User: Which sequence fits this backbone?
């Protein structure tokens, strides 16, 4: 039986969030399976295919792996989940909807990464219960919150944070351990490095929002920058230069290397 949800609704009688009956039945079938089988099924994209996992079941499995300390399984399950979220956001927040749609989608993925990193901790340990009830609805709420926040900032003529590390300075020197961490951070997703794959969620806790967004986007397959102005890259999504992206990834690499040293 899946662990019960504990988050309560913010309106009315503040009833507990409850999973759909079909989701509970799906989880009853999935939970006895080995992580290797669940990871294999998480890679099935076609919802009509046998063995495909629902979005909400995948959210639950990532959280379960996190709670049980199954770091490798958690991170391998998180990757297809983030890809699904990326597709949903691209459909519901296309470039035609807002001038900065790419930035908002990237920010939403970054916020979602933070939620998984902080799941089960702090003052609101059950925020992801909402995502188990309905992933699309939860992403819509997150997306709309970001749009409203930026709208308020625009009315106050407050610009988004500039890339203060950009072309005025190069990334600081890195020792061999940090350089290795940077290599793992910047390698293509198909070449999963042991450091990044094994400690993705822990690393997210150590990064600033800008660094976290850059690392998540790199892990999802985006290039740092491109000579093609129409191509979506980390730089275009974050609204900064390629040098700023490299600086952020270098800072993230140093933090990853420190995490490696204390493990």
Assistant:
């Amino acid at each position: 039986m899946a662990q019960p949800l504990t988050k309560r609704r913010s309106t009315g009688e503040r009833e507990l969030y409850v999973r759909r009956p079909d989701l509970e039945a799906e989880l009853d079938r999935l939970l006895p399976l080995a992580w290797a089988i669940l990871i294999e099924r998480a890679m099935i994209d076609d919802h009509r295919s046998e063995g495909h996992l629902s979005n909400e079941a995948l959210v639950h499995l990532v959280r379960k792996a996190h709670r049980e300390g199954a770091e490798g399984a958690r991170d391998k399950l998180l990757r297809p989940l983030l890809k699904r979220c990326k597709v949903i956001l691209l459909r519901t927040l296309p470039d035609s909807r807002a001038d900065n749609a790419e930035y908002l989608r990237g920010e939403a993925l970054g916020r979602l990464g933070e939620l998984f990193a902080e799941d089960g901790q702090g003052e609101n340990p059950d925020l992801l219960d909402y995502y188990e009830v309905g992933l699309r609805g939860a992403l819509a709420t997150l997306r709309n919150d970001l749009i409203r926040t930026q709208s308020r900032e625009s009315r106050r003529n407050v610009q988004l944070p500039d890339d203060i590390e950009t072309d005025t300075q190069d990334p600081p020197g890195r020792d061999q351990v940090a350089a290795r961490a940077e290599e793992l951070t910047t390698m293509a997703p198909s070449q999963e490095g042991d450091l990044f794959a094994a400690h993705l969620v822990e690393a997210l806790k150590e990064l600033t929002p800008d660094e976290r967004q850059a690392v998540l986007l790199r892990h999802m397959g985006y290039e740092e920058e491109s000579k093609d102005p129409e191509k979506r890259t980390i730089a275009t999504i974050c609204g900064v230069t390629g040098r700023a992206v490299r600086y952020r990834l270098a800072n993230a690499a140093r933090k990853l290397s420190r995490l490696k040293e204390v493990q």
Q: What stands out?
A: Residues 94 and 101 are 6 Å apart (CA to CA). The first helix runs from residue 21 to 30. Residues 157-196 have pLDDT under 50 and may be disordered.
